[in-house]
């Protein structure tokens, strides 16, 4: 219980630091929201009135207190570019990003275990070496570049999958899946390659431990030892890597969304930065940081739940 409380307190402190950094960075960035709305040639009195309306005339400390107070009430502010609450924009774009993240994670989870087991069982064989080489390429190539290659191959050349535009699941379930296949694969290739290499090395380390030799000496088959003991022990530390993978998938989806023209959070952030829409970008950055911290907390708690060797103080 003390460990859980310690993690929660750490999460709250981290969010406080992130709020300070997020607010402070956007105060020193060049560009004025008033100029974005009215233009640089606007009447000074009109600009002054709008500045007061937006609260930009207040001292920096008071603006931060007002902003953090609104955050606690669930108010992320109003977008300068779209003239609507940031929360409404987040609600409309979040399903796209979550759908892309879930699809990418499903592809990662489905492919990681069988490939890692194959590489560990056939270590140093030609087939395993070639597959291991492919995973190295997957780690090195950026997801947005993979996305461009996938568009050129499957959307432009073969014309079997769409190159972009999100179709809501409620309107066309099959169309929704088709629109997410290419961006999901673009994200999953890199993340899967990282987890595969880590799990493979963990499996190889476990195979050299004494308990494996003891089980084999008692007559247990290699397959039984691998699936009943080695894989179970190797998956425990992999949970941490999978938690980091979730964060990587979330970050990768923000970039890939722009490649495939998906109306998710990444598209909103790009639009907000380009239009100096600081309330929009501030709110989205803080929300994403909050999601990352919560994911890390869940991973820590999950690791504690599945690993009986951990003792809470």
TrEMBL record:
Highest taxon of the lineage: Bacteria
Membrane topology (UniProt): Multi-pass membrane protein
PROSITE patterns: ABC_TM1 (PS50928)
Pfam families on file: BPD_transp_1, BPD_transp_1_N
Protein name per Swiss-Prot or TrEMBL: Glutathione transport system permease protein GsiC
Gene: gsiC_3
TM helices/strands, residue ranges: 7-29, 98-120, 127-160, 180-199, 234-256, 284-306
Similarity field: Belongs to the binding-protein-dependent transport system permease family.
Domain ABC transmembrane type-1: 94-303
Record key words, sorted: Cell membrane, Membrane, Transmembrane, Transmembrane helix, Transport
Presence of the UniProt keyword Transmembrane helix in the record: yes
Compartments it resides in: Cell membrane
Entry GO MF terms: dipeptide transmembrane transporter activity
GO cellular component terms attached to this protein's record: plasma membrane
Organism classification: Bacteria, Bacillati, Bacillota, Clostridia, Lachnospirales
Keyword Nuclease: no
